[in-house]
Queue: 2 jobs
Job 1
Amino acid sequence: MNGWVGKILRVDLTSKTHKTEELDPGLARDFIGGQGIASKILYDEVDPKIDALSPENKLMFATCPLTGTGALSSSRCWVVAKSPLTGAIGFSTFGGYFGSELKYAGYDLVIIEGKSKDPVYLWIDDDRIEIRSAGSVWGKRVGETDDLIREEVTDGDPIKGMDVHIASIGPAGENRVLMASVMADKTRAAGRCGLGAVMGSKNLKAVAVRGTKGITIADHKKFKEVVAAAFKRVTTHPVGGNIFPAFGSAGLVEYFNEVGLFPNRNFQRIPFEGAKNISGQIVAEKFLIRKKACSGCPLSCGGPVSVTEHPFEMRGGERPEYETYGLVGGSCGIDNPSAIIKINALCNELGMDTMDIGATFACAMEMYEKEILSQEDLGFRSLTLRFGDAETMVRLIEDTAYRKKFGNILAEGGYRLAERYGHPELFMGVKKMGCSAYDPRNVHGMGLAYATSTRGACHNRAYTVAPEILGLPEKADPLIEEGKAPMVKYMQDLAASLMDAAGICLFSIAGGHTMEDMLDQLEAATGAGYTLPECLKIGERIWNVQRLFNLKAGLTSADDNLPRRFLEEPAPGGPGKGLVVNLNKMLKEYYELRGWDEDGVPSPAKLAELGLK
Amino acid sequence: MKKKKVIKIYYDKCTGCGQCEIVCSLRHLKDTINPKASRIRVYRDKDEEHFFPVIAGSGTDKECISKNIVIQDGKEYDNCILCRTACPAKPWFHDPKTGKPLTCDLCGDCVEWCFSGALGMQLSG
């Protein structure tokens, strides 16, 4: 095979055995890779009704045909399992170098099954597979875990160590915090859906990999041409060539605040008065040590940072992403960049999703200010949990990762917190997962995108902000419902196939990367004969498999919903001031376009058309 | 004296993306991408505050005995890390299949594909 390397590594932690299987070329062709292939395997092999933290769940690391090939922004690796946070299908992606290294070692996918009795880590050194004791690193934070395992597998040789890439969990994953992330190369996070808790439930601390084999390319001359063309397009684009490399994904904080998207105090207000203090521009100027890129990416949106302000001192880590500024910053009422950088680093070190931490704390802060949560509930007298209380947040984030006192309640995520105190409507999320940092009352397509995302509230499955706000590829009116159902369906199918399954980072689309570029690179690498209509069909197939998984897990159309605030409380500011999201209107049209009945169940004819059952 | 091509490295501009390793291997292996078979490697320091592209010089079959230290931004590095020689003590610059040492032939593909400006082709001498 070309692009794909053609092998699956299957590891059973219960029996401590492993085997290598051939990647079925038909499966690869029909689902491309990444979360696409992994969703199909999960649907075929795992009963959707199981407890996500039981040994019956399977955890997959799934690469894509473009991962590690140097195609533009092609670092992606997916972590897939049933989610303990949402009870739905769970998938989340990280960049860095882990996915590329897995491909160089000769595997498209690693499937982890069962549960080890004792803490272990998996060491993949080309064909040599070892399940090693993780006794010495269990309980350690992500950075230290990464360093210790690297030293152990390479006898402390820094040159050999450089080629080892590690995906690990921190204390949060070990303690099965439902917002726990899987961290790659210390700072790149597969944050969403609580998949770190699944890894922890299997007693798997880390997967370390080194590979010396290659990835063959179908048409190398053509591949070099199309990759060079994509790089030229993105590096000369104003966002891809300038804003992203200079300021990271947070370069648009101030603009998104101006157009009413940026959250403020659990989405109670618009705009956020402190946005100008926490932009990517400020962080690049005052805190960034240097720019850093993932494998094959010109955007270089990452990079270590340094903070000297007490009590938020830190050095290293990564500059925060836009979503972190929005949810830990605006939504928690924090406008001190030092505090946001510190919280971001702390979440990464403990192995927790910054987005759901932000959503959960914003919810808790609103409950505290409305006296639904009392000082006694928090368990300490000296600290308050009002919006903007960053120091309390730092302390409670530690407690959350270790499930101490009130942290044990926070560890279950914002939905369960709000429900426990009788106010589920105060959690701004869908399917128990927190909304991203875009208020849908000023970008209505995003409302439908949140409601219909198979993994819970998410901006990445259909980033309608691109057409509705940024005018990419064409400008659409963000304040109306008309036309949003076909837009969301089209973007979902496109992102699922040409980006998520092919291995391209979603950020690149804002940087000017076109779908033609993506298709050309995928085609030159695989030689599989893909066309744009076929990729859209593959996206639809992936979307329907995930839908089937969720329906069998017990989710219904009632879960395709939005928090009451977005449906009933008129937007307090922005161009859409006074408007709410009319979800039902969009949802009905969306179901029809998908070929689903009014309960959101795929019709037999649609499934037959996609070759599914 | 005839001018010769040299590849100039600007360490402070490197983002560690590894695109130079990828294109080098694709050029020399024809249809395969494999950074371990590349004639340029990027050393990524553990703290990710420093990236050092290193280009393969000539090979040797003997390990050297020098223990030089290089100081960069106040931090000490073993000279072995920055050394360009394909030697038996270091896994870089050897074909992973045959073990044969690899030497840069100044084809310039890595320079062409380096979008960060960390690599530049110059004439010197």
Job 2
Amino acid sequence: MIAQILRCGVLLALAAPALFLAVLALPSFLGWPWSESRVGLLTRTAFLASFGAVAAAGLAYAAGARAPVIIHLGGWFSKDDGFSFDLLVDGWSLGFAALSIGICGVVSSFSFRYLHREPGFNRYFVLLVCFVGGLLLVALAGSVEVLFAGWELLGLSSALLVAFFHERPAPVDNGFRVLAFYRIGDACMLSAAVLLHHWAGSDSLSLLFSGGASHLSRLGADHVVAIAVLLIAAAAAKSALLPFSTWLPRAMEGPTPSSAVYYGALSIHAGCFLLLRASALVQYSATTRGLTAAAGLATAGYAALSGRAQTDVKSKLCFASLTQVGIIVVEIALGWNTLAFLHMIGNICLRLLQFLSAPNILHDLHQLENDLGGSLAAAEEPPAAWGGALYLFALERGFLDGLLDRWLAEPLERLAAALESLDRRLCRIPAVFFARGGDVG
Amino acid sequence: MSASRLLWTAALAALPGAVLAAYALGARGRRLYALAAAAAGLLTVVAAAPLALEFFRPMGSGPGNFFLLSTVLVPFAALLWLMTVVTTPSARLDDAGLARTAAACLLGMAAFLTAAPAALVLIWIATSAILAAGHLEPRFEAARRVIFSHLGLSTILLVAGAALAAWARGRGDAAPEQWGLALILSAVVVRKGIFPFHAWIPEIFDQGRIGPAVLFNAPQLGAYAALVLAVPYANPALLKTAAGLALVTAVYGSFMALYQADARRACGYLFVSQSALVIAGLELPGRGALVGALLLWVCSGVALAGLSRAVLALEARRGRLRLDVRHGGYERMPLLAVSFLIMGLAVANFPGTLGFIGGEMLARGAVNSFPGLGLFAVAAVAMSGLAAIRMYFSLFCGRKDSGAHLRMGRAESLGFAAAALVLLGFGLAPGGLTRVLSRASAALISSREVRSR
């Protein structure tokens, strides 16, 4: 009975956003969008149904054996095709799923007013529900395909929300840049999945997530390290760890509620959650532990420094969130998983609150001054001890954007231009035989 | 051949045949367009009927056979014809083009229904001639030279290779047969734009006409010729070499697509990359890679034909499109924009589209054969997806466009939406199609094994 409730709860939690997505997206796609009030009703119903289902599953899990449960939903197209649709249910997955749905529900309620009469109202909610679906798949993934599907959904919805105000060039440019970083992470994750299948002959994430050293012994030591490094890179791209941090401030172009839920709260922690689930891999060797810790520590230092010098509230908040993400990653590298999970929940809730109240910050300060009966202290000046160079370094976010453009984007662009010129000449070589009087050029 | 299959084949031939006959008898303009659209729609339904029946047959029941592949590829050719006709903007309607499209569909279906080398060689020549016929005007002279030179070379290689292989097979001599097969694979390499013959495909998209270029590339007749004429008989080392070359081409094509400033050339490079992935999958050992390649064949054909036709539809309204500027217009044509995005996501093998399962099966097969080089398949897909989404951002976003002339016709919009829904529908429920292709692949693999013994 308990097992049935657990299974039904998890499936309903996934089905509710999927159904809502179909009901909302299809009419919009065909040119008959729902009214705002209908969208509101549908969204609330979907989030409440999904949250209730996860809560029921959580209670069933707590009342049961409290051991990880694998729900096997069969293959994608046949029973044993090697593409299994598996869900892994345990305390962490249910906790992260419930938190995700709860926070997205709060943000959707906030968004009804914030985006009232905005031309892309329906598009926003379609993307938000894609995001929730992606998060639930990541949280509950029991096979590589499910994890990858969720991971891709997160990335795409995120990039399209950064480019939400698509009639302006800057959000579109930044959306594309965010997507480019996410694609690097996606490629790393898919490579890890393919290599896992090649070396272990399995797609099951229980091998990596809940197995520990005994399960990993099916793989050679070098193979484990290779898969771990690829997963760490995937997590780093999603959580904006160094050297991928440069996309984070650019992602602030989207509507504030989406910035809150993506870059303040949930999306930026998705990489931490992946590392937490794959802690057996992270802890496998000194190399993987050291790599994780170094990425976390460097990111925390970089974000703390950059955040001090930012001049707008959303950038300050995103760097504050990133600082904590870096520390959480260090905690995971040290094996303090429970602390890391609690730290993650705390950071998610705090940053969500700060992001959502950011548009009111001037109003709140005036209210506070009125209540106090006097003006607050002046804005903090950068400490003189910093020196100009350090301040500039922090203000320019470590010059990462410039370095990336100079040492990666521009050389690749020049290479592509040279190759294109070569291609144009190459395809005309055989055409020489059909030219009249040497007029091929 | 059974009576029902004969009737089905006759119906398939009659529908594009009717359009060709009407053109020959002097039908022109809107009447010819209406006839072509009706015939293409009916053909898609007729062609898909056996496939729909196969969907309900479970995996283990009934032996697979070679013609199971036709059950998938024939409706695919019909769908490409339907897409081509309905998504053609009225400003670009061209009577001769409608006739060429019907002829290309007829030839494509004929090719997918036969395994006879002589018939395939003739169809190869005829489809090359159709592409050349679309570029007879003097303004396409540069493209015409490129087409003549490359397709001339590939045809010579194919004829020589097929003749040598058949002669050697008749004498039971293995060495000349392998030389013949190498020539056939070289012909495929040239026709499909595999490195070092990759450069001509973007060039004809750029300098020539996009419609005939799509008609030539999307059905992937070269891949079919490789699958039927060379793969079952060729030495594994030869196939592995060709597959490695194709994987390198896939990465190269997607990298170049990502950096193109011109929408047409980007489409051309995307075709190079995706075709190379399909060729790599067909030549790799193992059923997974083969099924993945067949799925990608259908997915990339529909998606890239849709993307290229969308570029054509936009060009009819805006002129030549550059990708280093933002064009805007999402609010004027959201259906086209979203369809374009979905087709781009299919190229990216995004979960929920038809490319997802195919791409991963292919990547697994590639890694099993080449643990290092196999990851090129992953890199190619990642970059192709990014290139397609860059095109979406550039063509539909980035500025407010108030031009009322940008509105799409109903048939055009529905054509693009239907292509997007096909990619999504088969992506969300890939079971039926994948089972059919899996059985077809089993038959192909067993024929390879029998011959290798």
